[in-house]
Amino acid sequence: MRADARRNRERVLVAATEAFATDGPGVTVAEIARRAGVGTGTVSRHFPTKRALYDAIVQDKIEKLETEAAALAERLEPGPAFFAYFAHMVDQASVDYGLAGALSQLGYDVEEAAARAGYDIKRSLGSLLRAAQEAGDVRDDIDVDDVKALIAGCLARDDSTDPDARRRVLEITVQGLRAHS
């Protein structure tokens, strides 16, 4: 790929990442092109569909989440690692409508997109969950699909009029996940 084509591709990715984060998956290709300072044809040459562009961005975000999961698992005990990762996913998605939509699976299969990039987000989340359960920190009757639904639930809380709302919902959810002795 020529140097100018690489630069244009990167500009499109940066603009699209920002556009999806602020405006969500409904942002138009024309708006992404405008923000990147390129024509819609340039966007289409690099990403034949808006879905392909969204996939590229989500895969990058999933890679970062996977890296964070591995780092937490290395640094922390199982329970704290699981709860930190859970909170991290909610926090990241709360400021990124594109990621929130992907994690909430609103018409988008994030697991499929992650698999195409060589990641298994469900396995990573499941590994952290099982380790926390084995350590006695998380209830045994919770599975990874429950955790995914709880993340989506935390993201569903609109905090536009109450900036502490999502944090409260997160704290309530974490308390509900904890194993009770």
TrEMBL record:
GO molecular function (one): transcription cis-regulatory region binding
Key words, A-Z: DNA-binding, Transcription, Transcription regulation
Residue ranges occupied by any HTH tetR-type domain in the UniProt entry: 6-65
Domain of life: Bacteria
InterPro entries: DNA-bd_HTH_TetR-type_CS (IPR023772), Homeodomain-like_sf (IPR009057), HTH-type_TetR-like_transc_reg (IPR050109), HTH_TetR (IPR001647), Tet_transcr_reg_TetR-rel_C_sf (IPR036271), TetR_SbtR-like_C (IPR049445)
Keyword Transit peptide: no
DNA-binding region: 28-47
UniProt keyword DNA-binding, yes or no: yes
Pfam families: TetR_C_43 (PF21597), TetR_N (PF00440)
Matches recorded under PROSITE patterns: HTH_TETR_1 (PS01081), HTH_TETR_2 (PS50977)
Protein name: TetR family transcriptional regulator
